[in-house]
């Protein structure tokens, strides 16, 4: 069998801060292999069980749970300790009643929140690419690595409400004035705001959005926000 590229481990001091791991002992930690999310914006499944949720105490226990199919991500069993769990992923664990979703929160890139069981088959994904393929069909690419061929009218920057694991698009949330967005990165990560204005990009500046927070307005690149609802978030994000 061909070996998958990339190292299996990472020096702890080089791991992202949002993993929440100890920095000195032991020296190495399991890392993220190439997959749906960038390794800089996701958490390895083994680290998530042991260090984030603290449901197991050792790497051996985490490996046992994962390799025996006890972890579902977006309704699919994932049997790799290196699988990266990222933004808006829904995590179910055999024998555990709680269901989790990873969201930005209080300036942290990713934090698990408990959600109602009725939402476990609903996921928000951000459109990151739109391509015309054979026979004039449209292929949409999303932030979590998945892609769908669909005739639904959606643009880059919009969000889609999809049903998992069936990957059926239930609704499209367009990025426009008046909608609710969540900031996904930076010091304002996790804050829900209303879009006041959209400013198109130029040769030297990216597309920007003017957001109204509780007591201030900020202007940030559109890449740093994700539409979560028209008037209110359509899913639980806090």
CATH architecture grouping of the largest domain:
Roll
Helical segment count: 2
The N- to C-terminal Cα distance equals 43 Å
Total number of distinct structural domains: 3
How much is the average pLDDT? Answer: 90
- Name the shape in a single word: globular
Helix content: under 10%
Structure write-up:
- This protein is 7% helix and 38% strand.
- By secondary structure, the protein is mostly beta strands.
- The chain has 3 domains: 9-119, Roll (Structural Genomics Hypothetical 15.5 Kd Protein In mrcA-pckA Intergenic Region, Chain A), CATH 3.10.290.10; 122-173, OB fold (Dihydrolipoamide Acetyltransferase, E2P); 180-229.
- It has a 5-stranded antiparallel β-sheet, with no helix packed on it. Strands 12-11-10-13-14 form a 5-stranded antiparallel β-sheet, with no helix packed on it. Strands 18-17-16-15-19 form a 5-stranded antiparallel β-sheet, with no helix packed on it.
- The protein is globular and about 50 Å long.
- The mean pLDDT is 90.
């Amino acid at each position: 069998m061909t070996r998958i590229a990339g190292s299996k481990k990472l020096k702890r001091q080089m791991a992202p801060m949002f993993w929440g791991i100890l920095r000195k002992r032991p020296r190495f930690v399991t890392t993220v292999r190439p997959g749906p999310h960038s390794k800089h914006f996701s958490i390895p499944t083994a680290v998530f069980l042991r260090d984030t949720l603290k449901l197991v105490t050792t790497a051996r226990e985490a490996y046992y749970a994962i390799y025996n199919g006890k972890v579902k991500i977006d309704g699919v069993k994932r049997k790799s300790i290196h699988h990266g769990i990222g933004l808006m992923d829904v995590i179910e664990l055999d024998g555990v009643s709680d269901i989790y979703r990873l969201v930005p929160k209080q300036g942290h890139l990713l934090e698990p929140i408990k959600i109602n069981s009725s939402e476990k088959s609903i996921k928000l994904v951000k459109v990151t690419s739109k391509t015309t393929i054979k026979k004039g069909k449209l292929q949409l690419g999303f932030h979590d690595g998945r892609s769908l061929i669909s005739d639904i009218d959606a643009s880059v920057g919009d969000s889609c409400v999809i049903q998992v694991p069936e990957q059926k698009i239930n609704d499209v949330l367009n990025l426009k004035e008046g909608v609710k967005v969540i900031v996904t990165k930076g010091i304002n990560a996790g804050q829900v705001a209303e879009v006041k204005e959209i400013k198109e990009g130029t040769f030297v500046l990216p597309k920007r959005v003017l957001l109204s927070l509780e007591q201030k307005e900020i202007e940030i690149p559109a890449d740093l926000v994700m539409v979560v609802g028209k008037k209110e978030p359509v899913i639980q994000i806090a």
